[in-house]
Amino acid sequence: MDSSTYLRNAKVFNLDIHSALSNVNQMEHIYIRILKSFAENAPRIIDDLVKLREDSLPRWAILIHGFKGSLYGIGAENLGDRAKILEIAAKEGRYLLIVQEIRSFIEDSVKLIKEINKLLEDLRRLEEKSDERQSLLSPDKNLLKNLLVALNSFNLEEMNAIISEINKHKYSEFQNEIKQISNCLERFDYNGAESVLLRLI
Fold first, then answer.
1. At 170, which helix (H) or strand (E)?
2. In this model, does residue 132 exceed pLDDT 60?
């Protein structure tokens, strides 16, 4: 199984991967980058959230607001909704409500981080295996032409599908150009991607 299929079929606690991918136009590499950033930064935020004090609710409301946005950004809708309730409670000074809810919220957030880290490690291993992929002389010209059509019609889902298919192989020729195209698509530099493509077709 390749990393794309694995990601789209992964079952992660409190995470709606399909919804999150739709928010980044199905660009899996961007979503994975967002997941990595979340997994790296969330533990520090949680450490701050557990330092809840009644006299620091305004600052705590700011912290939970930021964490809420991060949760929604990765597709953790349920936890994001719970963070929203906690944020409102903090702004209203409802300290006891937060005390009642915060423990289970933190526990579920920690569980989510652990499962995201496992998903990222699984994806890393699959990518390592993909380095053993079959080597071809050059990319399929039909795929390159289809990618150009997708670029000209701004069909983001088709672009992602085609470049993923192209990247399943290594190439004796034009490997650097394929990498350039991938980097351009990652930056949404469609003119740059088109310029390189036209040299290959």
1. strand 170-171
2. no
Same domain flag for 94 and 184: no
Query: What backbone torsions phi and psi does residue 173 show, to the nearest 5 degrees?
Result: -120, 145
φ and ψ at 167, to 5 degrees? -80, 0
CA atoms of 120 and 116, how far apart (whole Å): 6
pTM of the model: 0.67
Same domain for 45 and 107, yes or no, is yes
Q: How many beta carbons lie within 10 A of that of residue 146, not counting itself?
A: 18
Q: What are phi and psi of 153, to 5 degrees?
A: -100, 5
The rounded distance, in Å, linking the Cα atoms of 138 and 50 is: 54
Rounded CA-CA distance 16/59 in Å is 29
Residue with tokens 């579920």: 108
**Three-state DSSP class for 135?**
strand
- The contacts of residue 177 (CB under 8 Å, 6+ apart) are 196, 199, 200
Percentage of residues of the chain with pLDDT beyond 70:
96
Q: Are residues 80 and 173 in the same domain?
A: no
Give residue 164's domain range: 135-200
